[in-house]
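Worked problem 6 (solution included).
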Amino acid sequence: MGNLQHCCPCLQDEVKILRRIGEGAFGEVSLATCAIFGSVAVKWLKVSLSTMVHAFLLYTATELKRAMFYP
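Solution. The predicted structure is:
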Protein backbone atom coordinates (compact mmCIF):
# COMPACT_ATOMS: atom_id res chain seq x y z
CA MET A 1 0.00 0.00 0.00
CA GLY A 2 1.07 3.60 -0.44
CA ASN A 3 1.01 6.77 1.60
CA LEU A 4 -2.34 8.32 2.50
CA GLN A 5 -3.06 11.63 0.82
CA HIS A 6 -5.43 13.84 2.74
CA CYS A 7 -8.90 13.90 1.21
CA CYS A 8 -10.45 13.89 4.66
CA PRO A 9 -9.57 15.27 8.10
CA CYS A 10 -8.11 11.93 9.31
CA LEU A 11 -4.37 11.81 9.88
CA GLN A 12 -2.46 8.86 8.43
CA ASP A 13 -1.59 7.49 11.89
CA GLU A 14 -5.32 7.58 12.87
CA VAL A 15 -6.34 5.27 10.01
CA LYS A 16 -6.09 1.51 10.50
CA ILE A 17 -6.31 -0.58 7.33
CA LEU A 18 -8.36 -3.73 7.96
CA ARG A 19 -8.46 -5.53 4.60
CA ARG A 20 -8.57 -5.12 0.86
CA ILE A 21 -12.14 -5.06 -0.47
CA GLY A 22 -11.74 -4.48 -4.21
CA GLU A 23 -9.69 -3.49 -7.22
CA GLY A 24 -10.47 -1.50 -10.34
CA ALA A 25 -8.86 0.29 -13.24
CA PHE A 26 -7.55 3.12 -11.05
CA GLY A 27 -6.29 1.11 -8.07
CA GLU A 28 -7.39 -0.77 -4.96
CA VAL A 29 -9.96 -0.09 -2.25
CA SER A 30 -9.40 -1.11 1.38
CA LEU A 31 -11.71 -1.19 4.38
CA ALA A 32 -10.29 0.89 7.23
CA THR A 33 -11.31 2.52 10.49
CA CYS A 34 -10.82 6.13 11.54
CA ALA A 35 -11.69 7.56 14.96
CA ILE A 36 -13.64 10.47 13.48
CA PHE A 37 -15.73 8.51 10.93
CA GLY A 38 -15.66 4.86 12.03
CA SER A 39 -15.54 2.47 9.05
CA VAL A 40 -14.25 4.09 5.87
CA ALA A 41 -13.05 3.07 2.41
CA VAL A 42 -9.52 4.04 1.40
CA LYS A 43 -8.75 4.23 -2.31
CA TRP A 44 -5.14 3.47 -3.30
CA LEU A 45 -4.49 4.97 -6.73
CA LYS A 46 -2.10 3.53 -9.30
CA VAL A 47 0.41 6.13 -10.46
CA SER A 48 -0.24 7.37 -14.02
CA LEU A 49 -1.40 10.57 -15.69
CA SER A 50 -5.00 9.34 -15.87
CA THR A 51 -5.03 8.44 -12.16
CA MET A 52 -3.58 11.85 -11.27
CA VAL A 53 -6.50 13.45 -13.11
CA HIS A 54 -8.90 11.03 -11.41
CA ALA A 55 -7.36 11.81 -8.00
CA PHE A 56 -7.76 15.55 -8.62
CA LEU A 57 -11.41 15.10 -9.59
CA LEU A 58 -12.03 12.83 -6.58
CA TYR A 59 -10.37 15.37 -4.26
CA THR A 60 -12.39 18.23 -5.81
CA ALA A 61 -15.66 16.29 -5.41
CA THR A 62 -14.77 15.47 -1.79
CA GLU A 63 -14.03 19.13 -1.02
CA LEU A 64 -17.30 20.24 -2.63
CA LYS A 65 -19.29 17.70 -0.59
CA ARG A 66 -17.50 18.75 2.59
CA ALA A 67 -18.30 22.42 1.86
CA MET A 68 -21.97 21.57 1.30
CA PHE A 69 -22.40 19.54 4.48
CA TYR A 70 -19.90 21.20 6.81
CA PRO A 71 -20.18 24.98 6.37
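Discussion: The longest strand covers residues 15-24.
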